[in-house]
Every structure is written in C-alpha cells, then in structure tokens.
Amino acid sequence: MTFEKELKDHYFHGHEKYLRHISVDCVIFGFHDNELKVLLLKAKYAGKWALPGGFILKDEHLDDSAKRILKDRTGLDKIYLHQFYTFSDPNRSTKKINQQFLRNIGFKGGKSWMFERFVSVGYSALVDFTKVKPIADNISDACEWFKVNEVPEMILDHRHIFEMALKNLRLQLNFQPVGFNLLSKKFTMPELQKLYETILNKKLDRRNFQRKIMSTGILVKLKETKKGVSHKAPFYYKFDLIKYSKALKAGLGF
Amino acid sequence: MTFEKELKDHYFHGHEKYLRHISVDCVIFGFHDNELKVLLLKAKYAGKWALPGGFILKDEHLDDSAKRILKDRTGLDKIYLHQFYTFSDPNRSTKKINQQFLRNIGFKGGKSWMFERFVSVGYSALVDFTKVKPIADNISDACEWFKVNEVPEMILDHRHIFEMALKNLRLQLNFQPVGFNLLSKKFTMPELQKLYETILNKKLDRRNFQRKIMSTGILVKLKETKKGVSHKAPFYYKFDLIKYSKALKAGLGF
DNA sequence: CTACATTGTGTCATAAAAACGCAATGAAAA
DNA sequence: TTTTCATTGCGTTTTTATGACACAATGTAG
Q1: Residue B20: closest C-alpha in chain A
Q2: Among A80, B123, B133, B237, which is most buried by a count of CB atoms within 10 Å?
Q3: Probe site for chain A from B15, B82, B88, B124 (most A CB atoms < 10 A)
Q4: Burial level of A104, CB count in 10 A (0-12/13-18/19+)?
Q5: Apex CA A154: angle with CA A80 and CA A14, to 5°?
Q6: What's B117's DSSP letter?
Q7: What's residue A1's pLDDT?
C-alpha cells in the first residue's frame, strides 16, 4: 500500500481496527549532558511538535498499546511505561488538525472517526539516553530530544500532558527506580546528584547528598574512576538492584 | 417512559448519547465508628456488589461525568472527586453481565454498545459520613457502606479498582485535605489519629501524633470536650483551613 | 611541577522522631 | 460518696536525621 492509501485507510477504516474515542500519549524522559530531556515528534504539515501517541487495538491492554505505539513511532523498544493520568477535556479535539492534515495530503473532508472526540491516557517512561536511537515514523518530520525547560510549542494539550508527567516524575522519585532507568549502568555521584537536582528542581549539598544516598545502601562503589577530567576523578557507582527495590518499597526520602 | 422502556432505550440507543468504550467508576470513602468505609451498590439481578459507575456524555469532561454519575446513582451531591487510575484490561468486559441483565428483565440479546469492551476511569472521593444520605438508583437493590477490610464480592475488576483507590489514598494523605473531607466539622484527637492509622495501616504513638499534628498548626483546639465517655473527656478540634491548605502544599510528612 | 577545579571524608550544631513517664479526668462500679 | 479504671494532656529523655561547613586528596592543564 502506498503512504497516501494507507493514510486514507486509517482515516476511513481505522475505527474497524481501533477503539473509538481513546488514545494514548507517551512522555519519554531521558538524561544527557546533565540535563533532563523529553522526546518529541514533529507532526507533518501541522509544523508543531507532539508527544508520541496513537490508538488502541480493539482487544489490547492500554499498557501494551503504549509500548507498541512507542515502538512504532520512535523505534524505542522494551521500555517500561507507567500510566500517570487520563486527559478528557471535551475541547481537546483533533478534528481541525486532522482535517487540515487530510487536506494537505490531497483529500477532501468527509466523516472520520479521527474527527471525533478523544480521551487520551498519559504514559511516561524513563530511558537510558545513550542506549536508544529514536527514529521518526512516516507521519513525522523529525524525532528529537528537548531539554525539559526548553520545550517547543506543541499541538493540542500536549504541553499540559507533558507538565503533568514531569510533576508525576517528582512524586515517583522515592518509589520508582528513576535513577536506574535514566542513567547508564555505571555513573558518577555528581551525575546522580544532578539528576536528583533536576527532577526536584533544587540544589542539594554535595556532601550531604552522598551521605544520604549511601546510607540507603542502594549503591555499590566500583574500583574504576572516570577518566579524562581535569580534576580529581570521581568513582563510578552502580545500583544494587536487590537493595534498591527493597528500599523503594519504603521510599527513599528525598 | 416506563423502567423497561428506559432500559431498552439505554441498551440500544445509549451510544447516541454516550461515548463508546469509556466508563467511570467511583470509589467513595467515608469514616464512621472509627472505621474507614466504602460505598457500594448492589447490582440488580447480578447479586454482586459494584462501585457506582456510569457513562460519559458525548461532550462532557470526565471530571463532570464522575460528579453526575455519583449524584444520579447515590444521591451524593457537591462531592470533590479525584481521578486516580484508568483500567483497561481487555477482559474487563461487561458483555456477559449485561446480557444476563437483559435476559432477566425479559429481553433477548441482540447487538448493543453495552456488550462491547469498556475502559474505565477510576475516581475517588472522601465524604463526611454524617452529612450524606446515600440512595440507591433504580438499577440497584441497595446502596450501603462497607468497612474497607470487609468488602463483599464485587463484579468485574471492581475489587482491583477499589484497592488501587485505597493505595492512592495513602499517597494523598500528606497533600490533600483528607482529614477535612472525611471527618465532621469538629472531631477529637483520637478520632483523627484513628483515621491516620487506618489509612496508613499502622499504629502511631498517641503522644507523638498529637505533638506532630499540632506542630503543623492546621488544628484549632476548641473549648468544648466530648460528653458521655467513661474516662477523661477529649477536647474537640477543628481545622484551620487557611493553615491546612498552606501546609498541604509542602506536605504534612506522615 | 604548580595551579585549579572538583572529589572524598569528616565534624559539629541543630532539628526531628521515637520511646516512654505520670498526673488529671470523668463515668462506672463498689 | 468513694474508688476504680480507661483514657487524655502534657511532659522528658534518647536516638536519629539533617544542614552547614572544613580540609585534604587527586588528575589534568598550563
């Protein structure tokens, strides 16, 4: 099938395959250059950026939809996604956007399930920036990381969805393996501290942070130090996953 | 319209009024006799208990749906509802239940939007037990409070939904006016402590609890004491709403 | 081989939390 | 009327956690 034919099929027959009125949007966080980032797609023709989102197969758990959608739209695979909120403002209609989109690719309007109201379920994920290679799908012009403090204009209520995800991330910090998911296997103490500072949006005392995080027992100090820094080389650490998961049940206390 | 005609209309024309595939379920908590309780409806014919739930008008925010549904099904009005999770297991089908229901009231099967898959959005609320008079609607046999540790068998995944709501309540305790919503205007210190103990599911030291809660400044001690207890009479307290809402922004720390 | 930015470890003062003591109270029992 | 008893209100002591800061150690750049 050609791209145009596929699209037309999606607009006029997609409701045979997908549930009406329900969609999923994913907020993907990464950490790189000591900055928290979010992964966005540039919607073709609309010109604005969007969260990777999609629709629900008729017999699919939303958790699985989120995984599939993320894979299809960005290439990211085997990512743990976490549902955080459902957005149901009746004005969050994709009708105008979708009609515009259809016109742009040469179709006249008509009736489509895609013009109807959608309630969107928000999922978020934390990924190891260095391990993933995002690839835009064919209805997007680009797929890029943005610093969370410098997100561009987004379609619909995607900015609101993104902000809720960020807020939720703060609440999760003490109860989910946020550090493990966002950092590489091994990392330095300043890197971990910067991650906490970014998510909590406040400065922490370097020495007190070290004492507190080490007292939880979730870290193992490695023999290896970071090379190529023009000052005292910091040690690498890794997570003790067993102690980490135990500690998370009670909460870390940051 | 007669009851039967209304029902038939709902089954075979409801989709013209409501969104397909989406529903709302409400978990209503109350506190009475030093016990946390949940409000359930007894589904007619099914014999099992259920959370008060319902459907979404085509142009309605889910927050408003939840309010409307709660009002219609239990009589509770002006209740602050809080969305906590969306349940999307593809097996959570109401098809069998609804077909049984139709047969029981004398209709043969057929095709109905009510037989299709539903994704349900969970809302929870905290109400002053003494202030509300729950009234069952006409598709329920009863509307009753149950102790959270003694909930009866429920339809579908309603037990799971209820348990998620209870779990969520624990997280809210430090950031939402849980005490204010669940207790009467005035209350004693042991009552407040019991509420915290029930929600947190652990014993607290009476003296340390008093000191900690008073140090937050959210309570005002009244002159009045509780009458008719065969031991030292405890004082009544009320919330200082301004200080309470300020303190909640930073979290109470329980 | 010195300068420099940064790390690793430690100390001290203070605040918060946990554990416990005891007199006061008010209805019920004697 | 007096005593009993469960419970409240207010306190103390001990332990633990937090915040603020000092200083030596280290790896590269100049």
Answers
A1: A20
A2: B123
A3: B88
A4: exposed
A5: 65
A6: B
A7: 64
Sign of CA dihedral B215, B216, B222, B225: negative
* pTM, entire model: 0.92
Rounded to whole angstroms, the Cα distance separating A232 from A128 reads 26
> CA–C1' distance A232–C5 (Å)?
8
Over residues A186-210, the mean pLDDT reads: 95
Q: What is the pLDDT of residue A111?
A: 84
State how far the alpha carbon of A51 is from the alpha carbons of A65, A123, A161, in Å: 15, 10, 9
Instruction: List the strands of the sheet with B187-188, edge to edge.
Output: B187-188, B235-239, B219-225
Do residues B13 and B110 lie in contact, with contact meaning Cβ atoms separated by under 8 Å? no
Counting every residue, how long is chain A? Answer: 254
pLDDT band at A179 (very low <50, low <70, confident <90, very high): very high
* HEC assignment per residue over B153-193: CECCCHHHHHHHHHHHHHHHCCCCCHHHHHCCCCEEHHHHH
Residue B252 predicted with pLDDT over 80: yes
ipTM, interface predicted TM-score of the complex = 0.91
Distances (CA, A) of A235 to A32, A35, A53, B130: 19, 20, 39, 60
**Domains delineated in chain B:** 3-172 (3.90.79.10), 178-250 (1.10.10.10)
Question: Which residues fall inside 7 Å of strand D, measured at CB?
Answer: A 205, 207-208, 211-212, 215, 225, 227-233, 253; B 188-190, 206-208, 210-211, 225, 230-235
Report the SS3 class of residue B39. Answer: strand
